[in-house]
Amino acid sequence: MEKLLNIYKSIEGLSQEEALYHVNKFERITFPKKTLILKEGTVEDYLYFIDKGIIRFFVNKVHPTEPSKEITFSFIAENMFCSAYDSFITRKPCAYNVKTVQETIVYRIHHDDLQELYERSKVGNYLGRISAENLYVKKTQREISLLMHTAEERYLNLAKAYPKFIQEIPLKHIASYIGITPQALSRIRKQLL
């Protein structure tokens, strides 16, 4: 909880009492490796702060003549907020899945509790805005990367963003994320050594 509390403490003008009030709305959860946190077709009820670990966002691509395939479109790691934010905001079912890559410790806040914090204080609104802005920037950077960078550049950018986790994320998920086959990713990794 210390990492989350430090984020609140860094907000200028926020008292220790107010910071603790906010942080105490969060619940600590430990998810084992490969835990499905949110299944496609369900509504996201939580905003998460990742204390330790990494979470993967993916869709199940279904084709009538081929087996279903998971397409990874995002990774979120420790010290970051995450959520199926579109579902969280709209209160409509999510079109994708959210799953842990490794054992992951999160602090989560329920949608209703967050709404109360928004109404109660400017700090709640500030953190909500910062979380939304960070998720938007990450999404935009991902889209631009898919349009402008080679697969090798996308891999290097991922390795730079997640140096601690790049060896722990299964090859098939990294390959899916950068839009290539696991075999092509193996070749890229060999060339970089």
TrEMBL record:
InterPro entries: cNMP-bd_dom, cNMP-bd_dom_sf, RmlC-like_jellyroll. Residues 10-117 form the Cyclic nucleotide-binding domain. This is Cyclic nucleotide-binding domain-containing protein. It comes from Chryseobacterium formosense.
